Amino acid sequence: MDRMSRNKGEHGRQTHQVLQNTPLDLIETGKSLKVQAERPHLVSLGSGRLSTAITLLPLLEGRTTLGSEGTDIPLQGPGITAQHCYIENQAGIITLYPCGHQCSVDGLPITKPYRLTQGCMLCFGQSAFFRFNHPEEALRMKSMLPGGSQGLSTTKTLPTGKDPALIFMQYDKATSNSWTEQFL
User: Fold this and answer.
1) Is CATH 2.60.200.20 correct for 36-147?
2) Where is composition skewed (Basic and acidic residues) in this entry (predicted)?
């Protein structure tokens, strides 16, 4: 087995392990498809114009390190350091520790530990952008709105034993105007 195949295999096993620990829902809303996780996570807003993937980065209980070298979440771009910052999840309370490096939340520079809240926008260095999602917090916020948390979308939970990385989604406009999933 060559090095590239071995690395892909190892990466695939790592990805599968993370996905097993982070249940995902697929939500169909007309002509769009939403992917939703039930635990706190970051959503990468891409690594440039050529990025076509949506990346969810779970923030599991404990410390998650971010930076350009040897961290849980690798970052690239101007202003990123090897051990740039870390995010700590303590019983669902998520705190960003900037470690003296360039971090901002909703456009404001952060120099001290900062508790993250649902929907805030993060920037590390000058160009690594993320959105922070905290599904439990979002649900509490929605329940305080007039009308509660009622929605019009259909949630589809992945069948047990199916690998979410092997889902092929197909939009069939001719027959049903809806998305169908096929498990490879």
Assistant:
1) yes
2) 1-13
